[in-house]
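Hi F.,

I've been meaning to write this up properly since the lab meeting, where we talked about keeping a consistent format for the predictions we share between groups. The idea is simple: the sequence comes first, exactly as it goes in, then the structure tokens exactly as they come out, then a line or two of notes. No screenshots and no reformatting. I'm using this chain as the first example so we have something concrete to point to.
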Amino acid sequence: MNPSPDLYNLALDCIDKHAEVLQNKHHTALVYIKEDPVTGVLREPPLRLSYSSLQGLSNAMANAFASLCLPQGARVVLRLENSAEFPISFLGAVKAGLIPIPTSAQLTWPELEFILRDSEAAALVAGPELLPQELLQNRPETLRETLWLCDKDQRLPEGVRRWQDLLKAADATFHTEATPAEAPAFWLYTSGTEGRPKAVIHAHRSIRAHDARAKVWQDLRAGDVIFNTSALNWSYALTCGLLDVWRHGLTSVVYQGRLGAEQIPHIVRRHGVTTLMTVPGIYRRLLPYLESREGDLAGLRVCLSAGEKLPDELRAGFREKTGIEIREGLGMTEHSVYLVQGHDAAPVAGSCGKALPGQRIAILREDLSECGPDEPGILASHRSCEGLMLGYHRRPDEEAEGFRGEWFLSGDLASRDAAGNFFFLGRRDDVLTAGGYRISPMEVEAALNAHPAVEESAAVGLADAGGRTSIQAYVVLKAGAGATQETAQKILAFAETRLAKYKVPHSLVFLRELPKTSTGKLRRKILTGKIEAG
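Output, unedited:
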């Protein structure tokens, strides 16, 4: 007798199961707060969507997508800021059997164009001010539909539909088909080692794999309100801040605008936030406000951090002023947060935490044998981990390099002590981590090298005394170009037109030549050494 198929659909699990239960359907699923871009004041009242409302809106979006007659499994690129329209579009695509691909609103046209062509996207959903003019003149062949969130009085370019019109015309009843748990649900793009972003394919079952994280790290409880300050295209916000929260029937706060540290205490108190999930930079800016009455974080119980290492002095300062221990988590796009500092024990100095229960995580040697206690090696996830990606889209070499035997080898070096505490030791490759983002240096270098005055370049991470990392560029100029401050400013301004803001180098240094091996390979560590030596 054949076993029953393993069916699981993340949209049904995260939204519909609550919307169809009387005591849960009217519970608030989403609080959407938006800053007025002119005054900087938070708009009142915020938009609140219950599970029932979110079910109806995502059903309508699924019907809207279905009316476009896109093939099952077609990719839908989302170029949206944090907004209510983001989860409506994301969930609507999932319900319709399409594959949503959230992207950063900061991407330049060359970056977005690459994703549209690499994914063979059939549709693009663009937010206000985020419809690229270049798209209208250079539309990828596979892109059949473009949906734009725009005002009624804005003229629609040829071939573009108004998102709101489609949603309004669609029925709020939709039957979502049962889905194999292993079926692809969404893609996320991450920096590749060859200078090209690569698509990480996640299955529906990746969301149900997070229950241990919800218990051990997030400490989710009935009535919790979770505020993740990060962009929703990032796995940390999409899964930890939205889908995990909704799987457990709780409330997620989504914020759009420039988030000042002074606004966080107000949001915490105004909306009863119990869990704050953010990055070290936000905690650093928040710290000075905690001594004033306006900085009161009354009601806040859990503070979590990811994206980059949390400095010990920041952790201690925050604990001293609030009594709350910030708990760190470590993960990657391919396997969302899986090493955590649990709420039931004090963090071990220097450690990024322990593996979540049920997650088989190891430190391996190159021959795939396991390292002993305190022995440095490759941080690896076992193939049995449900939260692990299915693979990369059309990157067979990189996929084969990552999946070896029973393991997926990350790009990280780490060690583990006898008690099971993991210690992050750095990157196996040269991919940078700055401001919580993973950035390929070769992607940055490609943008710099496109400037007519640049012969070649190198990008490396520059860490300051507080542990924050930014990107520093080293540039060799072509003959005849002057190594002046004006030239440096022009090159950086040029890079801003080709790179998202978080990828643009913070500073630029001119060199006569780049350090290389006898075979012509860049010796990036020498440049890193230059920075460390001052």
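Notes:
The chain has a mean pLDDT of 92.
DSSP finds 16 helices and 27 strands in the chain.

If this format works for you, I'll send the rest the same way.

G.
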